[in-house]
Amino acid sequence: xxxxxxxxxxxxxxxxxxxxxxxxxxxxxxxxxxxxxxxxxxxxxxxxxxxxxxxxxxxxxxxxxxxxxxxxxxxxxxxxxxxxxxxxxxxxxxxxxxxxxxxxxxxxxxxxxxxxxxxxxxxxxxxxxxxxxxxxxxxxxxxxxxxxxxxxxxxxxxxxxxxxxxxxxxxxxxxxxxxxxxxxxxxxxxxxxxxxxxxxxxxxxxxxxxxxxxxxxxxxxxxx
Length: 224
Known about the structure:
Strand content: 5-15%
CATH class: Alpha Beta
Distance between the termini: 27 Å
Shape: globular
Number of domains: 1
CATH architecture: 3-Layer(aba) Sandwich
């Protein structure tokens, strides 16, 4: 990656799945700018463990893991000044990664239809528990729910006992983050080849072995 031009990625994610996706992209050499709310920062900063059990937004193990090789800028994007600065970043950016609920993304005009008009070369990577459309689009989810709906619980645990949840945040962070990063790279490759913008979407609840699906251009959809 060192001999290739660096891509600029604006990270508006508010959880570990988006943070892990951009961590991977930063490790591959992309320039990642993490946009965080002023004062308290992004929510993963409040997750421990912390050294000496003293909560500190700069020393939490989760944020230290997710924010490797990233830059950070505090912005209130719901205020005019903050939104103006964000728009200036997006003018230069190659990718925007977001994890807003669909209605919130619409309210902030950070959905694909609005961004495509203003920033035609921008790749948008969206991650949501149940996607950006469909009957479950506005529902929240946790690790246990996602493991159950994706079928992961079906293959875990002992045969004569109830299904067992896997340890950690597999379907709620690691898997969606990995696949979102892969979909982002695919969208960037598509942009180079077809000279068209793409939207990569990931629905966390779908089975992890389901193949990716590509719609007609200019939108690339990678779902798992």
